[in-house]
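Recap from last week: sequence in, structure out.
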Amino acid sequence: MNTFATRLAASYRTSWRTRANFSFGLRASLLIGFGIILGLLTFLGVLAIMGERSTIADFNKLLTVDMKMDDVGQDSALAMMKARQYEKDFLLRYREFGFNEAKSRYVTLLQANLANARGLLAEMGHLSGDPETVQQVQRAVQAIDHYENAFLSVVALYGQLGFVDTGLEGQFRDNAHQIEALLLASPKERELIIDLLSIRRLEKDYLLRGRDVDSKATGQALAQFRTDVASAAIASERKAKLTSLVDAYASQFEQYVQIAEQIKLDKRSYLAAVQAIEPGLEKLLDNALTKNAAARDAIRRKAVQTETIIEMIGLLVILLGLAVAWTVSRRITTAIDKTIQFAERITAGDLRTQTDYQGRDEFSVLGRALNHMANSLQEAVQVQQHRAAELEGMNAELERRVLARTAELEKSEDRFRKLAELSSDWYWEQDENFVFTRISNNMAKIIGVPDDFYLGKTRWELPIEMTEEEWAPHKAALNAHQTFTDFEYKVQTGHPDPLWFSVSGEPLFDANGTFTGYRGIGKQITERKLVQEIIKHRSLHDILTGLPNRALLQDRLAQALTYAARYSHVVWIVFIDLDGFKNINDTLGHKAGDIVLKEIAKRLQSLIRESDTASRLGGDEFVLILQEHVDGKDIQRAVERIMTMLAQPLMVDGQQVCLGCSVGLAAYPSDGLDVNTLVEHADAAMYCAKQNGRNNFQFYDSSMKMMR
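Predicted structure tokens:
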């Protein structure tokens, strides 16, 4: 092709030099006309490119800021949601984990998320550059600071309160234990011991529920206890010691109540700050989006103006081109016809054809050049045929090499097919002593522990929660060099909750059949285990109220009876049936009945201690297990309190509903020694209460069997 181009150019130059009396009319017309058109097209293209670049640059800048503002706004809102979650986790679990552990777990994370939210808000103000937005950001940051300071104040107050053995709670409980020790030293002071137990029960009610009525009742009981100590016939030295301990107990309990009230006030303070933060964040994002919308409109108007200018110039170029074409078309029509005929013969494959141009104008030069082109094409075809033969040989050799390489890849694929079929979260290898020699990087990403932690250790040397008996089957399979699949275990890491994993592996042998170790894969199955736990929970709890169902009730009652038999305690079974519940279902519908049952369940939960159990057997029947009531008078007061609470009116679909209840009681060990017997006897007592006019309670006695 290079030879062809060279010959064509040489032919054209020769023809140009040999021409005489050449006319420049056609060339001049074409050069001038198309020069103007080309200039206008160039100007039009530059203008279009500049306008497009300007529009794209403005749009990209706006899009970048828009997306960044949206991301920052969402991230700041998410940071506040996480901070609120950690706040709630601290308030819900500080008594479960202890103050210091809960503070370490949740308060630090809350402060980190608040700091993140402040940083994101500052970035939003910087991106916007709008004074109004900057002021809104400052107000939002001030509200976050107020929220953080108020919450930290609440945390400090919880630290003063303490829990069980710490803070004020630990102090007044220690005084109570000292009082109890002094009273137990003398068996004649049984009445004072009973008063002290009543004080402790009221104290526990206040600590559990935080109600004013419980704190007042505890204060009144302490005052009465002082009076009883003052009038008791005991030695003056012991009386002075008891009085001192009671005064300290009362002072510390009163201080505990005051701090608890202060916590309520501080909570209202930071909740008010939170209510100011979230609308502020929404307003910030709305303002930013409004400004971005205005900027987009401006960019759109600019693009429309640019398009209008380009269209006008384009129309001018078209008109000028038509004028130039009309001017020269008449002069080139004949020459074009001859050129078309020559092209048709060349297209038909007649490379020996020649033109018959005569004259000294541009088309005559073109004709001679086309003749040389035809000659050159003949030579090019011959060269192409020769090259095609060479390429065919090269393609055959390349195909042979591809087939050989494909065979090698198939062998390599066969060696690793089995491993590929086991692919999962991470890959591992062990030597002949079952020591890890390789762990893929995915394991470090999943569990957050570097790979070096595993290397040089066996699986049972890792922090896996499993006994030696549970390890035994797995070790036996390894020692027998067997393939194993889906071996599950739990790992306690830095995560709040443990992680579950499943591993599979196959033994490795060298060419001589000697065992060289194991290789395999692993995957995380924590989510599957959590689903299994949810299924288990639903199988043991009532779907409507969330209370334990009959199966879980029997399990907890069996545990309570075992404990009571070991320590000679009394366990009370309270069987409750709602009076008039069927009328609600018949008149208001089953949906209203469900609302009533949920509310009754909440009330029962609020009345019992943590050591007690409230369950729903089905329909409108509920059963309570009460373990810390000493005698019949104590349980009678508890039942009266339950009946009073359940009798309070409640609203259902805008209507006030009042319910009573019939209650039957049975006690271990006097009324039965096993689970089924006690529940049946409590049921019989409840039935007797219904027979006696409803809305009352009955203790079980042996005569009730015949009535049931």
